[in-house]
Amino acid sequence: MTDDHHSEEAIVHHEPPRKRRKESVTMQPPLTPMIDVTFQLLLFFILTFTFRESEGLIPGALPKRGTGGVSARQTLNKPIRIRIIAVDARKRAVYEIEGVNERIEDPEKLYKILIGRQEVLKSKEGPVIIKPDAVVRWQYVVEVFNQAVRARFKTIGFAPVS
Asked: Which residues form a coiled coil (predicted)?
């Protein structure tokens, strides 16, 4: 009997700690705080996000090199020059058309004058040159451009800001 008992003690069975555990323990991080932080971040970004109007594109193309022929010079002889002048520390603007002795505040009136110029010139080819003052808001420049496009002028350009 001592031999049997002694032989059982001689055999050493090694079990890793994982196998010694009777119950299966799964490690899971606490989800409630992570969900709370996620919702707080989501709420922060929703409340601090500012919506802006999308920027518009103004169609335009430069002339091809060497195409400044006689017909191009003839149409440039009578351009319609529209000057945009800032009034009241950039809050408002007025429009001046070369050859018209009044300042225009209403875009609809500007449109009617451009249509009248088309009838006098009998052409929609005559260029419209927009010259804004340096401190004029961009919305007024776009408004003049839109009225020239509405009047169906084909050549619309911008003079350099002085």
From this structure: none
Q: Is residue 108 part of a domain?
A: yes
- Decide if 31 is inside a domain: no
Enter the pTM of the model: 0.51
CATH number at residue 93: 3.30.420.270
Digit-coded pLDDT (tens) for 65-101: 665 554 444 444 578 888 888 887 657 888 888 877 8
Would you tell me the crossing angle of helices 138-150 and 107-121 to the nearest 10 degrees? 40
56 in a structural domain: no
Q: Residue 153: exposed, middle, or buried by beta-carbon count in 10 A (0-12, 13-18, 19+)?
A: buried
3-state DSSP assignment of residue 75? helix
33 Cβ contact list (under 8 Å, min separation 6) = none
| Total number of domains constituting the chain | 1
